[in-house]
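Q: For a teaching session next week I want to show students how multiple molecules come together into a single three-dimensional assembly. I've collected the sequence lines for a complex. Could you give me the predicted structure tokens for the whole thing so I can convert them for display?
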Amino acid sequence: MMAAAPAVATRPAQRLSRVLQPTVVVYLALVLLLIAGSILVGVRGGVLLDQGGILNILTRSTALGLVAIGQTMVILTGKLDLSVAYLIGLCSLIGAETMAGDPGMIVPAVLLTLACAAGVGLVNGLVITKLKVNAFIATLGTALVIRGYLESAYSGPAGEVPRAFQHLGYARIGPIPVSALLMVALAALAWWYLMRTKGGYHVYAVGGDEEVARFSGIRTDRTIIKVHVLCAVAAGLAGLFLASRLGSGAPWVGVDAGYDLESIAAVVLGGTLLAGGRGGVAGTIGGVLILATLDTIFDDLGVTPFFKDVVRGAVLIIAVALYARRRGVLR
Amino acid sequence: MVVTGLTDEAPLVRMRGIGKQFLGNAVLRDVDLDLRPGEVHALVGENGAGKSTLMKILAGVHRPDAGSVELGGSEVAFGSPREAQAAGISIVHQEFNLLGDRTVAENVYLGREPVRRGQVDRRRMEADTAELLDGLGERGISPRTPVRRLAVAQRQVVEIVKALSTDARVLAMDEPTAALADHEVELLYGLVKRLRERGIAILYVSHRLREVFDLSQRITVLKDGELVTSKATAELTPDQLVRHMVGRPLDALFPDRAAEPETGAVRLAVRGGGNARLAGIDLELRAGEIVGLAGLQGAGRSAVARAICGVDPFTTGTLELDGRPVTIGSPRAAIRHGIAFVTEDRKGDGLALRQSVRDNALLVRRAAFGRARGLGALDLAALLRSVTLVARGPDQEVRYLSGGNQQKVVLAKWLAVEPHVLVVDEPTRGIDVGAKKAVYDLLRGLARGGVAILMISSELPELIGMSDRVLVMHEGRLAGELPAGPSEEAVMTLATGHATVEAA
Amino acid sequence: MTETLPTSRKSRRVRLADGTGPVLAVLAVLLVALAFAGPAYSEPAGYLALLKRAAPLMILAIGQYFVIVSGGFDLSVGSLVTAEVVIAARLIDGDEGATVWVIPLLLVTGALVGLVNGLITTRLLVPSFIVTLGMLLVLDGAVFLWTGGSPRGALSEAFRVVGREGFEVPLLGAVPWSVLLLAALVVAAVLFMRGGTGRMLVAIGDNETSVRLGGGRVERLRTLAFVLSGVSAAIAAILLGGFAGVSAQVGDGLEFRVITAVVLGGVVLGGGRGSVVAAMAGALTLEALFSLLNLLGVAGGLESAVQGVIIIAAVAYASVGRIPFRTRRST
Amino acid sequence: SDLPADPGAAPSQAPGESTGQSEFFDQAEYERQLALRDATPEGPADRPWEQALEPEMVDTAQYRKDGPYEICFSNASVDNPWRQVGYKTMQAEADLHDEIAQFRVLDAEAKDDKQISDIASLTSQDCDALIVSPNTTATLTPAVESACDSGIPVIVFDRGVNTDCPVTFIHPIGGYAFGATAAEFLSEQVGEGGKVLGLRVLPGVDVLEHRWAAAEREFADSGVQVVGAEFTENDSATAKSIVSDYLQREGQIDGIWMDDGTAAVAVLEAFEDAGMEPPAISGEDQQQFLQKWKDEGLTALAPTYPTYQWRTPVIAALKILRGEQVPSEWILPQPVIDDSNLDRYLTAGMPPLHYGLCGCQEMPGFPQRWQ
Ligand SMILES: Nc1ncnc2c1ncn2[C@@H]1O[C@H](COP(=O)(O)OP(=O)(O)OP(=O)(O)O)[C@@H](O)[C@H]1O
Ligand SMILES: Nc1ncnc2c1ncn2[C@@H]1O[C@H](COP(=O)(O)OP(=O)(O)OP(=O)(O)O)[C@@H](O)[C@H]1O
Ligand SMILES: [Mg+2]
Ligand SMILES: [Mg+2]
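A: Of course. Below is the structure for the complete assembly, covering every listed component.
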């Protein structure tokens, strides 16, 4: 019955656009970068993709990847979350302090951390939907509040993570860290949620046009709250991962790494539209890998951090300009 | 969910004493309305009369400040469109409510995606959409196409399919034909009849009186938010209806044509114009005449307008203004050459909705001419009066105006630059008879003052009534030219490509 | 709803006040609170000092307002301020004579950075959030790449006059030059926004297409907004460098602070609504708040928490409370 | 797993550290540092970066190796002028030694997590010695431990780690000494009941926390009134505003205690702009502060946290690779700049944020390389 032959005319165009999906472009760019990087590093007598290099790229991608998965969902609804950086620090502390070195407390600590993170996400979502505060301001406000708490309650790393939990951060299979696998698994889950479930459809709908979504009977507020909670939980996971790497909680671990803006950059680099409604997790992971690969290449080349910043900024702008070009052409 | 047995005595929807205020202004006062199963109930009135508002109250978008809504005998109070939908009330909004980046099927089932084993059942969704589209006779739309790629008319079809897909008992349509060409309107007629036979109650808002008489069994007239009358269609004549709506009898709808249009100097001439959407466009517009541009939806009428006005310029051929060849590569260039362009999508292209009437009316002047405006002083009040705008004042934000009044603001901003050539694309879309007449008079007045006008309209009677000549398009080319007052058949023959007549 | 008619005096006033009300109320409360909290605020000198301190942020707010109201973001102003100060110090290097050409050069640099932001945003169709985020990274990296990691050189006395010194006025006492400059810029900004170009910027933020079809040079106007923002950053840098001398941290966090200020003034992110006076009032409010918290001896941590809560509350009030507020006005 | 071996019974606390929500005060360490100020350093007097206070030498024969060497360095960041000057000095030091074939550096950009991978990555390459300047004490401990386990000599400097597995830990006397010296000077200058304002950079950095902890104690002991302690985030404008506010609130401030001299000049200007005499002030060995001090004859003192300590790790690495003994805890002297030796540390023409105690004055390329 699904007959409807008329689709024929549009098929080639669809196929073309599927081939040129930003996701595909991102991974193509990643491959090119790896090749170019290997050559550059090779010229200087190193090897980019040896065991250590792969390990490096993947380890570096993990924390940012976790946050960026959450950020993707938020951005898909046309919002953004600037509170993740402070939240990561907060969550690493909650986790590490609850565990306090006791392996028996791992599960309660993880649950508690994620619950707290979800709470923060809930506040973000409620402020945005019920108080009608622009997401930029709402999450910036939350970030300031968390920062205030961290500043007054902590003056350095605190808590202690038991060894058993540290395996999360260090265990690996060959050159592949287990945590990176977990991150990819989470990305897959997020991908399934966004592409296959009703909730995911509504995320795209809200991002496409909130008004239209509401008129169509979607509970837009709920969707927005949900993505903020999911994003905060993803940040919570990143916090826990970092705690397992660091052995304790660290208040500024998220801020120092600039995970707020960097996660947004990764998402956009991955081809997700900042305005929402288009894009996805697969691209984001590509974006994260590109950033991590760039870092690794620069480290191998011994480039100064200032130069890295310049390149990162340029890559971000150029990539997004290319997407915009492509979109213009296809239209 | 069958209602065939119900008689006239049992309305499915009973709205009583509905009142609604926006920002302290009463837009509805004590309005009653009954909807019976299997009945098309037309709701008419001038722009801003409150039709859309009443419909939105029924559909749960707004809550009434006063009065009650009963559905099937029990009182309901919908807090959201979702609740209304669940109760079987579905709405086709006046403005589009589609997501450009999602497919047709995803749009149709938006918010109600069928789920199978925790996942959205995409296949079923697409199959059902295809079936619904088939039922409408729309074979040109694939359920998997992103809506962004559809033309306006196709989007309207998707809107209707979306409303139908809910198995609604009550269907409210707010100007569903505003963007449709006549042959598509025919399809819609058939569709509405079939829905009626299924026992669905239909509330139908339209400014096209012909449709109202063709389709409805009952007509309710609103004026300034109050109920004027509610009568069986059979008891009303078009003249009476217009009198109810406007409050006075309306004499001849279309103003007299120009006495001798051929005598005007050629203002604008296109020779061999073409671009991605068009080929071999040859046309001349003379000072003082109104040239109609007819064609089916998608024939390229808007494309011609956009090309002349520099939005999607011609890539081949020449364009002459007052006998001098010019290149027009941007809207700015067009405007500075005295060409004005009233676009068909007023919300998307025409208005800065959150700005005041004043800022919108002055927009083109400021945008195209800046400081060194080679224009005379402007009497804003007179300008707004000339388009018979109804607003609280020049500081009112345009988004709070009714659709028709918004259209008048669009006209006003173009008139403010005193154009020599005026291209109007669907200038009366969504505006009431009274306002339409005002627009007609306005256009004719401009023509008399020496402006050359190219008018596009999907309402054939209007196009025929207004034009001094009619050009007809078919698939991106001019299929022929007809003199003043052609028959609808003549136009349609050319438009459907059944004949080509050499241009005179 | 029936009169068609014209420009009454009353309605003109309404337009000027649109969105300005709430922030002015908050500002008034803060100023009164300041008078109670600190003896210095019982005389004009105290308020002049406040204005002097607020001047850079208020000037940045003017620039940021142009960008925001036309539908963009400028995240690069913070790093631009830092870059300008560092550039000034290196170029002047203590040489009084150099001041004369360095100041115009700084203004040109600011304009150039804005021009690049604007051109990439409008010609390459990259969202301004991303462009300016990239620019932030590039500037951060490039300027220190140039100076070798930390500021070099020194500012001249002449350079520092505007940011630091004042002139005597009979009743008021010493009026800082920066306050005079601020006043001039305020007048200029208000006049600009009343003119055609200003109204066009707002209209672009509301509906870009309508302006383009109306013959407006959208790209140029939006670029102009970025240029003005860049220039405002240059002026702010001159004031800040003058106020406190060379530092590698002058601009840190200014981008978020100024966006907060503008939004606090009721300007809607995404464009199309808000007044420039309100944006500046937002900046002044923020500075008054900091001063008050400081006077009350609120500790560092609490300070940012309070700031977070207040911006959320203010924006929530403005958006949830907007409708009743408007109603009162319009009846 | 790359998880470092369980430290097990190994001493989990390096001196001066405390875990938990730190009250950053450790009485024993405090006393030790105060005493160290008066100890006589061993080593060449004109090369304080090679001197050591109360060294306990360890044998390094096990690391002995023939050159040329590849020395690796995991840097926390170069995001402030102090680290910039230090890093330049370190590179200059590395250039001095021909036996260093390669000096490989990874910069963690202030990210703990990145530094952990950096250390792991350097460990897995063929470095002959690894120098680490940790971003955060507690969090980098495991990474440093695992580097030690790999068998290469590890040298830690500046901030410490909570393990004594590195061959040597290089640092100046420490924060307590710094803070206390400044506070003693100010107490003396302002007298009992005098008003002192503390200007700190940011919370949570242990070295900085120690400075303030010692100062607070000293002020309390000598009856000085601390009117406030504020964080400036190293921003001169913030610092200047804060001081102006305090001047308004307090009317008068007799002394300024700073744990970082970056904003010292701006702070003094706040007094000038308010038409007041400059207060007694403690800053740091930063060029612009020293310059102003000299030009205006301030009542000032600059306890230092010398950047010359960046030279020492390279020297230590070479000693270790040559099998020479090094102190297990290499405590460098921490000179104090006062009116008497001000001229020695002030070199005209250096950038405003240059640090006088870079120990670089005699190195090749001075001063251009540091300008
Ligand atoms: N959300 C709103 N806020 C304020 N005023 C509104 C709003 N919606 C509608 N109005 C006002 O209510 C009145 C009725 O508008 P409505 O859209 O119902 O008119 P309409 O009869 O559908 O007109 P049209 O034929 O032009 O579509 C108009 O004056 C309009 O300005
Ligand atoms: N093949 C196409 N390429 C580019 N744009 C298209 C194409 N088809 C439709 N459009 C766009 O879709 C919109 C509506 O299309 P539509 O078919 O109504 O335009 P038209 O044929 O020019 O006008 P009309 O229907 O008034 O004759 C137009 O804005 C047009 O730009
Ligand atoms: Mg309507
Ligand atoms: Mg059209």
